């Protein structure tokens, strides 16, 4: 009875040694050498599911909590389990008694297990190998660590995305890969050089004019959720040409300052009161001022008749460096430009520099391009079959 109580107490103490101390110290216990029987199966199999559940829970919460230590801890536990199994089969061997078999140490297997779990989750390779070498300062295990990391990466790539990629998908963040890979029929990779920007752009684009009424701009912000708007100017021939871009935030900030509004009924030839312009600091604020209740103020602009006769001159605030591409521009090159320059909006124009559509990150997401290009392929196949039927003899 006493022996059973002592064993239970020992198990509780070992569990507390791993769970009730900081993660760094627990990892040191797992990586420690010549401690073959410090933790038995019951301790490791008890701690592993508890810590794994808590680590997943903490990683998914909206709090500042890293996952480096949990990854090393979880990998160290199952690596030590493997090492403990080998010790159970072949016995305890130390550097003094049998140097050739000294590698059969649960602490060494905990190190390899931590590296493999870290590599499988993060898909890091060379940098992770350097990190593990810096942590342990044991060059003898360089090759096993490299092999474990590469195997973990290959298995992880075969099964699923990396953790951080999965979190991006879970939070619906439109992340673009370095190279677009679009597959049709589950097999064939589509060559995006054969398609143009007009095939994936969102159209018609919601445009604003260089001088627009306050009521129409407020109504635009209330009725749409777009993040950017192409600004156009009407030429002498009646066509509207692209001159720049304004984001939703910039337009909201401008509408929060009534001192820059102009009266539409006043002719250009008549003398107007001096119009004040916003400074760059005010205009480039990351968010509107706290006093600016956006929705209520915009609704007031729409409902009040006087704002229909007021306008705002957007010329000083337009981003005239906004990128544009032709509607027949290569889709693959447009993707590379968009991702390399870190754009949020890419305006698509025609030969007359008139706005034909807009491209955002969501338009360039793989599933969206695949859906649109499949529709184009189906349409082309129908047209080809129709032409064949027309050419075939009756």
Give a quick summary of the entry.
The chain is mainly alpha-helical.
Explain the overall architecture.
This protein is mainly α and 394 residues long. Helices cover 49% and strands 11% of the residues. It has 14 helices and 11 strands. The strands form 4 sheets. Strands 3-5-6 form a 3-stranded mixed β-sheet. A 3-stranded antiparallel β-sheet has the order 4-8-7. The termini are far apart. About 1% of the residues have low confidence.
Secondary structure layout:
Blueprint: H1 2-19, H2 23-31, H3 41-59, H4 68-90, H5 106-122, H6 126-136, H7 142-159, H8 163-170, E1 183-184, E2 188-189, E3 208-209, E4 211-213, H9 214-223, E5 228-234, E6 240-247, H10 248-255, E7 261-263, H11 280-283, H12 294-303, E8 310-313, E9 324-326, H13 331-341, E10 346-349, E11 355-359, H14 366-391
Parallel strand pairs: 3-5, 9-10
Antiparallel strand pairs: 1-2, 4-8, 5-6, 7-8, 10-11
